[in-house]
Amino acid sequence: MTALSELSPQKVWAARLLIGWSRDRLAARSGTTMTFVWTYENEGRVMKMFSRERSLDGLAAIRSTLEAAGVEFIEENGGGPGVRLQKAAELIQGQTP
Asked: What is the model's pTM?
């Protein structure tokens, strides 16, 4: 798993499109906002978000939501960083949302 600092805006955008999600859907599923998703994808800025109970790391929420939906983030391994879908068997075990 790559560090959150290595989760580029391009990877988030590509992952979202790979599974056919809108920014609104990713925001709703991750507990962030469409503005948060848009700002990160387009400007590379991470906005701080707060809930009543605790501070929410929106980027971590986005990453875990995309992974639960079947996205696998690929580290630089000679072929370049990127995203892909998990194998079907892995998705069945994980029961994606």
From this structure: 0.78
